[in-house]
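Q: Could you fold this chain for me?
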Amino acid sequence: MSSMMTLGHRIRHYRNEAGLTLDALGERVGVAASYLSLIENGKREPRLALLDDLARALDVTVADLLDTRPPSERAALEIELAQMQETPAYRELGLPSVRPGRGTPDDTLRALVALHRELDRKAKQAIATPEEARRAITRQRESMRATHNYMPDIEELAERSLPERMRGTGALTHRAVGVMAEGLGLEIVHVDDLPHSARVVLDRRNGRIFLPPASIPGGHGLRSLALQAMAHILLEHGDPQDYEDFLQQRLEAAYFSAACLMPREQSLAFLSEAKREHNIAIEDFRDAFGVTHEAAALRFSNLATELLEIPVHFLRVADDGSITRVYENDGIPLPVDANGTAEGQVVCRQWSARRAFSRTTRTTEYYQYTDTPAATFFEATQTGASDSDEFSITVGVPYRESKWFRGRDTGERAHSTCPDLACCRKPNDDFAERWKGQAWSSAKVHSQIFKPLPQGTYPGIDDRELFEFLESHSDDRR
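A: Sure. Below is the predicted structure, expressed as structure tokens.
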């Protein structure tokens, strides 16, 4: 529709410049004025022969008429207004369409378009509530399961993006990441005044990737952040249209980063050898490529099923037992809400993801067999800590696949009957009776539960703070 409306406006623009009425132009090209009116209003698409006749009559070229740019600011406003009035959200209001005439002031048009833009922004913000966010996360997990969490197009993009001399050389260094950025015309800049809500900022205008200082704790993750910023350019991401689009862009950027840090060919060779030796261990995979345990576990979930024929599940669980990140295609019975969302739900106390917290020594992975109502699973869990809390990272597989993994000889075994309340959530009957009516407590509630989504163009990022940061570092101010 947009191209037809632009064509119509360009024809009208050149007709007015030529001082012709619809009737006069119609006589020159042999069609009725009413038909030309439909073309100018974007309701009819002219034949190529008629386009030739119109171009000659208006003393312009066919290329002039087919140019995709609106011929003027007013035409651009009229096109945008018409498009916005065709959206389902506007039609649901039951309001009549506004058709600006020649006498409609430009300021009125600007005000109407600005109003529609604000309504559109508020509509998108409204649907990105925590409830809608959970639905979007669930749809994404279902999509990932359908493809075994494997993205061949991004795998190939990562392979093409790695400099030839740096392929097959082990861990990707900070210098190598810098060279990749330079190849895209980007400079990596470390600053100590990033917006408090941002981990990385990409400045497309001035060709910069802003990162925290390299000396901060956990600085090994800076390579991944820089690669994710590059991914947004290579994957031609624009501003996300809604929360689901934001999630998809974030997933693709993270996947590209992982595929660069742990390239498919080298990763497959490493993991295939470990499988032949019945000695797969995420901690070995992590150390071989110099990444975090979580990054290695997620990367393993990309490759396990598609390339190693091993179904798998991945869990990141907070120390209160709540799931913060999850993927599965092996049938593990995840706790889910009414929408099928697992994120935010609490896993069984008997699962490895929670029992690993009780260990005194946590330097190595914790191995366990877990019996569930669905099947028995072998799981390997590593605990870690962030600035705000502790967490565990778990990779698990069905019992039959445990033969490929280190730790399969563990004597640790737990039995879970969740979602049966008697498994780990129902209190001891004696205790319940003894303390009935005698206890009170205040829950520790995560503040993000009450935050609207999104706060800006990118959920969780304050647009004002982001743009003020970019302005302060812009070349235009130097």
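A (continued): The first strand starts at residue 187 and ends at 190.
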